[in-house]
Design goal:
D-Maltodextrin-Binding Protein, domain 2, nine-stranded mixed β-sheet, three-stranded antiparallel β-sheet, 12 strands, about 30% helix, Excisionase, PBP_domain, SinI_DNA-bd, DNA binding, HTH_17
């Protein structure tokens, strides 16, 4: 009989907290996990043990660092460490390249255990502000300046010191059905009541691209048929278009190659960057990450996936 285990999403539902709170508990070593493929799993007995400790006042579910007691997994200097003195870092974002980055970190950096959080760009930056995430990926465009990422990072990470390193660039655009039966070419076509869009969730880079582009072209969201219908990743959006649930969605070129019955209309080259706080804890981590990004093995793994521009990979875009 297969042993039961929980995903982080299921544990978050059970405890009625956010997924990021669960990641924080894992990082602090308060909730043991193991991995099955790309997913973290939590055994029922470990969850029950954590709940029992919480009832006894040994720990609490909280986003405040100082509300967690010192334990054998803490080094006493405020640094978060997992079991066996392994530091656990959360990498947020949804692109396949981040899974490859996590594998390279795990294989080449001793004492570092990467955890993956599949949240959007804005939620990732907010989680970094709150202390939940260590490496945040972001692809957020500002309509007026057409600048990627920095306007949002500067506003959210106020009074923080950080470095922004390019991961890659990629093409973003419309998913349409094979043959493009509705003859969709640009954003203005979304004003047609005969064209139904499938949207992305609030906080995702694709959603920001949609909203900023509608704003630039002076299109009201009330004019866009299907604006309230959301999916949470590129693959789900492309699949909905392929099935005819919607006529158009926004995503990246790579995903269109994975879904039968979908064509891609490129609109923009988006810059996909990584953000890391310049904390004492990250003093050694930042050059290590940059070294991985610049390595031939990492770039070769990304290049094998196809559809990425790696000309600036590993370059520091901005730092405070």
């Amino acid at each position: 009989m297969e042993k039961k285990s929980y995903t982080t999403e299921e544990v978050a539902q059970i405890l009625k907290v956010s997924k990021l709170t669960i990641y924080d508990l894992v990082k602090k070593g308060l909730l043991p996990t193991y991995r099955v493929g790309r997913q973290m799993r939590i055994d029922p007995e470990d969850l029950e043990a954590y709940i029992n400790r919480s009832k006894k006042g040994a720990s609490t579910i909280s986003i405040k660092e100082n509300e967690f007691p010192e334990s054998p997994v803490s080094n006493g200097k405020g640094q978060r460490q997992g079991f066996n003195n392994t530091r656990q870092i959360v990498i947020s974002g949804q692109d396949f390249s981040l899974d490859i980055l996590a594998n390279h970190i795990e294989n080449s950096l001793n004492g570092i255990r990467p955890l993956r959080s599949y949240v959007g760009s804005l939620e990732g930056l907010i989680s970094m502000y709150q202390g939940y995430s260590d490496i945040v990926s972001t692809h957020l465009i500002e309509a007026e300046s057409r600048e990627y990422n920095l306007p949002y990072i500067n506003k959210i990470l106020v009074n923080f010191e950080y470095v922004v390193i390019n991961l890659l660039s990629r093409k973003a655009g419309f998913f349409v059905q094979k043959g493009n039966p509705k003859k969709i070419k640009n954003w203005l076509d979304l004003k047609s009541p005969n064209i139904k869009i499938i949207n992305r969730e609030k906080g995702s880079g694709a959603r920001v691209l949609i909203d900023e582009s509608l704003k630039k072209h002076q299109i009201s969201i009330h004019e866009v048929n299907g604006y309230g219908y959301e999916e949470t990743n590129h693959l789900s959006v492309a699949s909905a278009v392929a099935k005819g649930v919607a006529d158009v969605g926004v995503g990246i070129e790579k995903t269109s190659n994975l879904v039968h019955g979908v064509e891609f209309i490129p609109l923009i080259n988006e810059r996909y960057d990584l953000v890391i706080l310049k904390t004492p804890e990250n003093k050694a981590l930042i050059p290590q990450i940059q070294s991985i990004l610049n390595s031939n093995s990492f770039k070769s793994d990304l290049d094998a996936l196809g559809g990425y521009d790696l000309s600036k990979t590993g370059q520091i875009i901005y730092e405070t």
